[in-house]
Design goal:
14 strands, about 35% helix
Length: about 450
């Protein structure tokens, strides 16, 4: 059914007139009686007038301006009225979901003066699903407390974080026609307590190479209680991106760790910030290795050269200070991971020692070094982990049933899949930082586990 212009204008006049009669009873009575409007009225500064259709408009001082009547004397729309919401929503959609400034300009040019428009438009845009889909920020939650494996005084490499990085192209062997190239990766193990690292070179991204690297690590550094890493599928995904076949079997690796008395804890996929302890070490490793490669020049590196470089990188990283270097000449000791690495079996809890007896027995000198390290570790290093550098405030938790947008770094934002929260996974403090998302891809439902930093809230379920 179509309507004429006159019918639409008459409908607009009728609807706005009813809204003004409902919201501005006292103001309309004062204008009709020729009295001044109260100073407490929101219309006091607008000098309102009544037009020929009985609508209240802004009087103002632009009656002599060479502009349209609707622009010089816009219709006053009451604040927080349903009519105001409909007008704001209409012109927000007409402006293709742009910001408050453009939306407010479109409303004003259309001849409407909405009281409190700035705040009302901002509130409308905040709740707009399309705007959230286009520009909404990821969810965040207050930074959690550190786990026990970051703050315990266990021997080095008792609690470990690990990841695989690379590859590097090496010269496997010389031939009459030149060189046969191959690829190598590195497995980085970092102690979550004293932040020391251990790097092993692997020839391929399969289960046997990874387990062999862990066997070498355990043989050198001793048994471990707990290992953290990204999802095992990350190893497979890295190979897929490089076009390299991989058959890393999580079950076999987990079985091997269980035989060693070690548990394996996985972070959610796409949650690199939850593995910052080893991601940071990988970044430092790459920087040092790049410097070494630059000094080496364009010559082909071999497996032996790469292994030597990574051993030197390990020594450099383990010699870094854990706390700011003191300028006090009476405090020459620098707290580094290397201070304790060679004393693993002597790093039991500190004991009181008679300093006159330090040089009588070798084990007491070793014990004193370990005691000094752990004493400074508790007093100086541990306190640096106390503050939250970001995510200081508690936010409302995501609830089951909420509609969200799941990030996908492989596609554009307007192609990110829509999903529904099917399950929330609270942390130890009760705050939700991981969720299960159900999406439909090509007609098939799939469930993903993601950190909340990888989702954008569209419609919360209350």
């Amino acid at each position: 059914m179509s309507y004429s212009v006159n019918e639409l204008n008459q409908a607009k006049v009728t609807v706005i007139h009813a809204a003004q009669q409902e919201a501005f009873v006292e103001e309309l009575r004062c204008i009709k009686d020729g009295k001044n409007i109260s100073k407490d009225s929101p219309l006091f500064t607008l000098n309102p007038i009544i037009d020929k259709d009985g609508l209240m408009r802004v009087g103002g001082r632009l009656s002599q301006a060479n502009i349209d009547y609707d622009e010089s004397n816009p219709i006053i729309i009451p604040k927080r009225h349903h009519i105001a919401t409909l007008i704001m929503r209409f012109y927000h959609e007409q402006s293709q979901h742009q910001g408050r400034h453009i939306t407010e300009g479109a409303i004003r040019m259309a001849g409407f003066w909405i009281l409190g428009a700035k705040r009302s438009i901002s509130s409308l845009i905040f709740g707009c699903v399309v705007c959230r889909r286009l520009r909404g920020k990821s969810e965040v939650q207050k930074m959690s407390d550190l786990p026990v494996d970051r703050v315990s005084t266990e021997p080095p490499f008792t609690y470990v974080g690990t990841d695989v990085f690379g590859p590097w192209t090496i010269s496997a062997r010389r031939t009459r026609g030149g060189h046969v190239n191959s690829k190598r990766w590195a497995v980085l193990f970092t102690c979550l307590t004293i932040r020391a690292v251990h790097i092993e070179v692997v020839e391929s991204m399969d289960t046997s190479c990874f387990i062999n690297a862990m066997r070498r690590f355990i043989a050198i550094r001793g048994p471990i209680k707990q290992m953290r890493s990204d999802r095992g599928t990350n190893f497979v995904g890295a190979c897929r991106e490089l076009g390299i076949p991989s058959n890393l079997d999580e079950a076999k690796v987990s079985r091997f760790l269980a035989e060693q008395g070690c548990s394996w804890i996985f972070n959610p996929p796409h949650a690199s910030h939850m593995g910052g302890a080893w991601e940071r070490m990988i970044g430092i490793t790459r920087k040092i290795l790049d410097s070494m490669m630059l000094q080496l020049g364009p010559s082909k590196i071999t497996h032996e050269v790469l292994t030597t470089f990574l051993a030197e990188v390990t020594a450099i990283i383990n010699s870094r200070p854990l706390i700011p270097v003191s300028v006090d000449p009476e405090d020459p000791l620098i707290l580094t991971p290397a201070t304790l690495l060679t004393q693993k079996y002597g790093s039991c809890p500190p004991v009181e020692l008679d300093h006159t007896d330090l040089y009588r027995r070798q084990w007491k000198r070793v014990q004193n070094l370990a005691s000094t390290f752990w004493d400074r570790w508790r007093k100086q290093y541990l306190s640096t982990l106390q503050p939250r550098k970001k995510w200081q405030f508690k936010n409302q938790d995501i609830t089951t049933g909420s509609v969200v947008l799941m990030k996908d770094s492989q596609s554009k934002r307007n192609q990110w899949p829509l999903g529904r929260i099917t399950k929330v996974l609270p942390s130890g403090d009760g705050r939700v930082r991981k969720v299960e998302i159900k999406i439909v891809n090509k007609g098939e439902p799939k469930v993903f586990v993601r950190p909340i930093t990888e989702v954008v809230m569209l419609i919360p379920f209350n």
